[in-house]
């Protein structure tokens, strides 16, 4: 019986960002792997503003997520993040009452209250939450086409339902909104996704099934077992990798890295998988 | 061989309206049966404003429709319309090039350009226009619930798709928008509908099939062969039975009458039927 | 020098709710006064489901708010809440970094990203945050008409901007969305409002001015100094007084009580006031 | 006393279009100067599909406009239009009852019924139609920024109000929607616009003032007296210079030409001017 070696147990994720800042600005970044009970993170975060290393203030986010707040001066900002992730077996996490209540509310990009009628007429008769989620993910997978640059920052789940095209966040928003509309608590997560065809930050959905959070991805673009959670929230408004909260800054370049421990696992996109 | 008697050949339609007017107003009413080649109309229109008979100026509308323009003083307005309609066999009417172009454009309540993606993903693969129309009418019939007072004057086809409920105009708007989105010219018609369960003005769809206008009704609430056309247009903005174009007036009561010549015909809501 | 007597120091707030439940349901209520550093609360919460007293599970909310989770059986539910509030001087509360980031994000009913252009063109040139907030509250006060039942649960700030009418939550949503769009952190609060003309739950806005939360009310319907905070959140999705998270229940009656300690204070609706 | 010579009396307008067609298609073009009582047009229209000259079927449009219907095969289509326009003095045209009724209805891109409240709260107190129109044009001019490529084909007047940016059609849609909302009949016109900074097709508004159509342009990008009317309609859905009604075709290049007779006239963008 061979033991898996250390190379197979540890995944490597990271990213490189460059921003152009044109006014003194406050920027929140969400790029660090979330702290989770079964996950060990060895990481490095470096922020340089006009050749000077800058401290990043860590704020607490949902589900172990961490936001880093930067106060930067006009000029260039480069951000480097690298982490080695050693994860134990992905054990499902219990949904708290507070989380359940929040995950049923409509949100900016998942206005579940606007499409309740459509959701009920298509999925309302399906008896169990699990079957409803499967039917919703299947519907979105069949009817929405993945197309780069087919949506913008203001695109919401209704827009995606109507245009029938989008990127990962649009798939996640539509699945989330439809789930909430049929009383299945749902939230989104930004993740590193080893195996993603065009490497980038990825966005998936977590829904409550039998009291635990389970992850779904209607894009089917990366296997779910090796996803690495970064940020968790109601929708893209909560989990953007950069948010300028004051001042003015623009993203100039972005590179994302994600390598799984060992071979990429298979994923039939149908069974229950928990996001670490 | 018995000949059908006169009672069986002539339908009777009409309506009674009362408006309360609180400022000198201009009101357009569309309640008279449209003039059509194969239709003979014997009618009476009476407008009384504060006990005084008022002339109604007839304006020309699309597809033989007639608008009546009233200039009224504050107080009460009562309108009585009655017509005996003798219709020949319902022969399909050719679609003109001008009509086809107009019937493909998005309109206020049928914003076909907003739901093109959804329409193509659901109905775009169906080869013929006729089959696409049938699939669309069937989809709307199955997924939208008829419910009185479930929509308002600003409700459009997207709202109806999302809420999955509506009244006859909402069914007509959604069918029309979906048809246009898959390149089937479509327009709406206000009609008298003998046999309608709760008698009222009714609203149906005309689409082009093989060069001719054919009528569809996804509510399935009245047989199509005995419908009597009143007004024809892009959507409800064009065919409202009353529009206040200046001043201020409110509808106080409405009664609609529609009796078919002879027994009500059967309608499987699937075959081709032309609106006279 | 006379000391204010106990009658003048303590306010009294409370409410009575009746719900009709038609399926086993989970209901979240937010009706209890928030726990705040300078506030002493003496309270009583009674829930009765079909004549049987029911325990209410307390969940933690933002800014000292408390949600109560009820699991109820079909039949009737009556809820009685009464509290005596003794508040110290209303000292402004510091805005944390986490709160600031969240209060700048667009939300379901305050889609600030959709009206950024309009907000900047009307208020973007105003130099300080305080002056921008005053101009926004003044604009909403002048252009939006308070009208009962003029909006519904799906109405958002854009709808209110367009319809120019609404109730307290609509005023709060529009002010909040406009503030966020010009980079002023803003959130909403449900409050008991002594002096409110038609007594009901009330909804106001908190914005960051010079690092502290300050309260604004563009309806001008109740003085701000005697408001009692209940729930705090991004918009009405977070602070509804009842949310059915599973099952089916409908509100049958609601009575709200709010009496200030002593005479109602004056409020020019322009100066800085902190919500306790 | 010198008479103006022929060079000063005749304007020259025209355009060159190239389309790439990938399926047998029907295309409607609206590029020819409208036939008007006081206007003499000497013109040439050439359509070439894969090196073969193609006939263009002329359809009748509103206000003397002409649509040309083309049935084309896959490959390239080039369209050349040139016209010499000799216009008499621009005498205002009477508004017919049918036109007035149609120009008060909401339309796809001018959903006046959605912003009635906002329009009334900003402009409803202004006594005369002319003053309301001036106030609306001034509001749009001050609050909306002209920005190329800031809108798309689905952008409507509400989107423009919110984003506060747009191109000529967006300015025209917002003015039109606001006018209709305060009971001023309004429609849009596509025009050739001598003097337009970046030469292109231009879009302006016609509103009824004292029974006649008068032209307004809240972009202020070209003088109104030398505009040449092409197409007239409810909004951009009616006046697009190309519409593919069946098949698939994409615009590859567009060049527009417009030269005024003589020097460009001054325009204060405030007085009454009729569009020929």
TrEMBL record, chains A, B, C, D:
InterPro entries: Papain-like_cys_pep_sf, Transglutaminase-like
Residue ranges constituting the Transglutaminase-like domain according to the UniProt record: 160-220
Record SUPFAM superfamilies: Cysteine proteinases
Taxonomic superkingdom: Bacteria
Gene3D superfamilies from the UniProt entry: 2.60.40.2250, 3.10.620.30
Name of the protein in question: Transglutaminase family protein
